[in-house]
Amino acid sequence: MKEFLIAGNWKMYKTKAEARAFAEELKAMNLPNASSVAIMAPFTQLDTLVEAFKGTGIKVGAQNVHYEKEGAYTGEISVDMLKEIGVDYCVVGHSERRQYFGETDETVNRKLKVLIDAGITPILCVGETLEQRNQGMPQIVIGNQLTHDLAGLTEDEVRHLVIAYEPIWAIGTGVTATPEQAADMCGFISGMIEGLFGEVCMSRVKILYGGSMKPENAEELLSQPSINGGLIGGASLKVDKFAEIAIEADRLSKL
User: Fold this and answer.
1) What is the DSSP letter of 215?
2) Residue 61 β-bridge partners
3) Residue 24 annotated in active site
4) Please, which pLDDT band fits residue 171 given cuts at 50, 70 and 90?
5) Cβ(198)–Cβ(155) under 8 Å?
6) Residue 223 sits in which domain range?
């Protein structure tokens, strides 16, 4: 059976009350494989969601973390704070963090290390711009990101990662990479992991596609052998749409 992870990334949406209502509605749907579903939420909603999903198998993740244990870093959240809440995942290196908030491969690398040490699974995001793709550079860009982001990590550490391929030109634009484009790049990422850390490590790392996945294209994307799930943006804000993708992933996992 193919194992999927369907992770919603809420970005800067929803209040605590809205998050609680979403959780109750999602729980009522009795998803067939809830343990393969997760929500990446703003910091203020994490404790609400952890409590709401307790006992259901549905996981909760943060969207960012600081690499220092503590200190004078106004507005930041440490890994111990996340661990205390009880989150399962944390997104690292999302293109919006890289573009708007100065995230670099160096800070991504440091964040990966502290999350792994804390037992929180990182979801590492990599991806290229439209200009880089048009110049024939997507593999060069992503190869460089992976090489620097994973520098100094051991095979045992990397096997605990989830990696999300997010073509920047398809995030929030309504444009989706074709299944062939998505599969090609996810396959390239898988090959990079195998080359750097070996076949056993590669077989453990889930590669997700992120970039306007929705119910209408979920089957086609998730059917690709190199794609093990999705990091879902806009479609994760609506319970019915998100659940539809999760149910489709469960169906495909049994084929």
Assistant:
1) H
2) 40, 89
3) no
4) confident
5) yes
6) 5-253
Selected residue with higher pLDDT from 212 and 39: 39
The letter for the amino acid at 154 is: T
Phi-psi region of 83 (alpha: psi -120 to 50; beta: other; left: phi over 0): alpha
Strand-pairing partners, residue 40, are 9, 61
pTM of the model: 0.97
172: pLDDT strictly greater than 80: no
If we measure between CA atoms, which residue out of 164, 181, 67 comes closest to residue 124?
A: 164
Query: Which H/E stretch holds residue 224?
Result: none
Q: Which of 128, 157, 166, 248 is catalytic?
A: 166
Number of domains, the chain: 1
Q: What is the pLDDT of residue 75?
A: 96
CB 59 within 8 A of CB 38: yes
Residue 99: pLDDT band with limits 50, 70, 90: very high
- The number of angstroms, rounded, from the C-alpha of 33 to the middle of its chain's C-alpha atoms is 18
**pLDDT given at position 154:** 97
CATH number, domain with residue 102: 3.20.20.70
Amino acid occupying residue 164:
A
160 included as an active-site residue: no
State the residue for tokens 């193919």.
2
Task: Tell me the per-residue pLDDT of 43-86, one tens digit each, with 9 for 90 and over.
Answer: 999 999 999 999 999 999 999 999 999 999 999 999 999 999 99
Q: Quick check: 20 and 41 in contact, CB under 8 A?
A: no
Burial string for 140-152 (b: 16+ CB within 10 Å, else e) reads ebbbebbeebbee
